[in-house]
Write a structure and sequence with these properties.
By secondary structure, the chain is an alpha+beta fold. It has 5 helices and 5 strands; from the N terminus they run ααααββββαβ. The chain folds into 2 domains: 77 residues, Orthogonal Bundle (Arc Repressor Mutant, subunit A); 42 residues, Dna Ligase, domain 1 (2-Layer Sandwich), CATH 3.30.1490.190. The chain has a 3-stranded mixed sheet with strand order 4-3-5, with no helix packed on it. Bound molecules: zinc ion (2 copies).
Length: 133
């Protein structure tokens, strides 16, 4: 994956910090802000948390990156992809994508609710294969 090209596709300015954020998300799938900060400090010892937030917000605005809200945990971030569900390990907090269509459930919720639905997140939890050994 050419990270700089991807940023350009989304009309985002290419900076070394942004390329590093995209690279980490590509490699690790889902990371929260603290994890991103720790990883970026290795490459940019003087980077601040505020700078990371600023860059993240710009990329979230363009929907290049998406926030995943995990109940009772810090939000994680991932590169945007087709809508899907998540599974979270209750022990090690590992998060994996489950590439299922969430459209059917969304339609049913819309039908049965008097709300106008603006957002959805489907998160399942359990014990991962590593932790159940
Ligand atoms: Zn686990
Ligand atoms: Zn995901």
């Amino acid at each position: 994956m050419n990270y700089a090209e991807e940023l350009k596709k989304y009309n985002l300015k290419v900076t070394p910090q942004r390329v590093a954020i995209v690279q980490e998300l590509y490699l690790f799938g889902h990371l929260n802000i603290d994890q991103l900060y720790t990883k970026l400090l290795n490459q940019f010892p003087s980077i601040s948390l505020a700078t990371i937030y600023k860059n993240m917000n710009a990329m979230i605005e363009r929907i290049f990156i998406q926030e995943v809200k995990i109940p009772h945990e810090k939000s994680v971030y991932e590169l945007s992809k087709a809508s899907h569900a998540h599974v979270v390990c209750e022990k090690c907090k590992k998060i994996e994508d489950i590439m299922i269509s969430t459209q059917g459930v969304l339609e049913e919720v819309k039908e049965k609710s008097s709300f106008s639905i603006t957002n959805s997140a489907m998160v399942f939890s359990g014990i991962c294969s590593e932790c159940s050994k």
